[in-house]
Amino acid sequence: MFIGIDLGTSSIKMILIDQNQKILATANSTLTVQSPKDGFSEQNPQEWINSTMECFEALKLKKPKEFSQTISIGISGHMHGATLIDKDGNVIRPCILWNDTRSHQECEEFEKQSFDVRSISGNITMPGFTAPKINWIKNNEIDNFKKIFKVLLPKDYLRFVLTGEFFSEMSDASGTLWLDVKKRKWSNQLLSCSHLEEKHMPTLVEGNEETGILKRDFKDRFNFINEIKVVGGAGDNAAAATGMGIINENQSFISLGTSGVFFTPTKNSLSNIGDAVHSFCHCLPNKWHLMSVMLSASNCLDWICAVTNTSIADTLNNVENFYSDNNLVNNSSYFLPYLSGERTPHNNPYIRGSFHSIKTTTNSTVLQYAVIEGVSFGILDGVNSILKVNKNFENIFMVGGGSKSLFWIKLLSTILKRKLSVCDQSEYGAALGVSRLAMYVDKDVPNKNIIKDIVVSRKFKPQEEKIELLLKRYKVWKDIYQSNKKIASSLLT
């Protein structure tokens, strides 16, 4: 038996699987996020521990015999979080999360070096990454900075509590800005940009390698039979990809979740810094991946539904009917989906959402269509950014809440001019991914059987008669952004 733990921003999810990867039991426990100031986003690491214990208890209650026979554990986690540990193993302050934007000035400080920071890290310095958070702590909480013994990512702090060991793995470490992504090792040059040394970092392994044994008190508390190994695990998106079986360069996925992600594995380390593409290691050896990230995707849909007082189902039905009339689409309003700024391809923290070409005939359905179309154009921006450096992907799989809308997938397929497939998915996909990684340390499981083929439930192809109209609107939409970015910063107070 194998356990996968997914430490998310809003909850811990946990699964128990057998050697055939049948999910025997699941559990989840809610987490909270604190925002002490505008732009601040923090979490108390003790909540991660409490929720993990709750989930262990739940799995034990549901499948006590199978649970007790667990062989190994894999851990996934939300990336970029800065968890600071002192020499006694205590947490110094709340963890600063991935969506915290306080360190925008420190990003400039981080890159003002005598060497090319981006060529080593493979990425642009952004407030979401770990490194500028540490620079902010040095500039604003010097006493806390002086106490730092280790800087751990969220899942790696959970690992430390479970095993007493300091380890991280390549996919999550890529999001710190301290990793030499090509060489898959810590960069002393990049660490020096945050006034740190390699001694402050955990030891690096691949995601399927052992990092320690579950502590005796946890083994006894939960009546485990075996000495349970804990493997490296993965950052959340790499874990989700592994859960879907996306580890090869001809594969990719689009996630229409709160944010919009396009993820594709590569054989070598590639980068497109100019378009703010994320260039990370994958969680298996000798594999990398590229990722475009738009900060607001399905949450734009949630927002317009709330504004127009319309359910998601009714909104999607309204929009589908509207889309069937080319004349209506051609004369529709436009929407920039940047409710929280944007990463790929603009790396613009100042741009915000906006409607354009509002008329006396504009009604709620027009606005709803503009939002869906605008988010879809944002996904196309991300795909185009990756196409500049990598054209090897063929199969694109759809996941996330937005992928439940058949209309939205049809629209995306047409805008992208590519076939899209919907695969069977679960909210426990990342947990499944790291439980698969945990299987690699069991000598009785053949490695070639661990990453399963993707199960496709439905396929979509572009509507040829709509392509010209939509790409014409995409060009106008891009021009609108170029005009808006000139005044974006002056609109913010």
Which range does the strand content fall in?
15-25%
The tally of helices reads 19
Major beta sheet summary: 7 strands, mixed
**What's the structural domain tally?**
2
In the CATH classification, which architecture of the largest domain applies?
Answer: 2-Layer Sandwich
**What would you report as the Rg, rounded to the nearest angstrom?**
23 Å
Q: Write down the CATH class of the largest domain.
A: Alpha Beta
Mean pLDDT: 94
Q: What is the CATH topology descriptor of the largest domain?
A: Nucleotidyltransferase, domain 5
Determine the N-to-C terminus distance: 54 Å
Shape: globular
CATH superfamily of the largest domain: ATPase, nucleotide binding domain
Total strands:
24
Q: Would you identify the regions where 5 or more consecutive residues have pLDDT less than 50?
A: none
Helix/strand class:
alpha/beta
The share of residues in helices is 25-40%
Q: Could you characterize the architecture of this molecule?
A:
The protein has 493 residues and is of the alpha/beta class. The protein has two domains: 2-232, Nucleotidyltransferase, domain 5 (2-Layer Sandwich); 244-493, ATPase, nucleotide binding domain (Nucleotidyltransferase, domain 5, 2-Layer Sandwich).
Set out the fold topology:
Blueprint: E1 2-7, E2 11-17, E3 23-30, E4 42-43, H1 45-62, H2 64-68, E5 72-77, E6 83-85, E7 95-96, H3 104-111, H4 117-121, H5 130-140, H6 142-146, E8 150-152, H7 154-163, E9 167-169, H8 170-173, E10 179-180, E11 185-186, H9 188-193, E12 203-205, E13 210-213, H10 216-221, E14 229-231, E15 234-235, H11 236-244, E16 251-256, E17 260-266, E18 278-281, E19 288-294, H12 298-308, H13 312-323, H14 326-330, E20 334-336, E21 354-356, H15 364-387, E22 395-399, H16 406-416, E23 420-423, H17 429-439, E24 456-460, H18 464-484, H19 488-491
Parallel strand pairs: 1-5, 5-14, 5-15, 9-12, 16-22, 22-23
Antiparallel strand pairs: 1-2, 2-3, 4-7, 6-8, 10-11, 13-14, 16-17, 17-19, 18-19, 20-21, 23-24
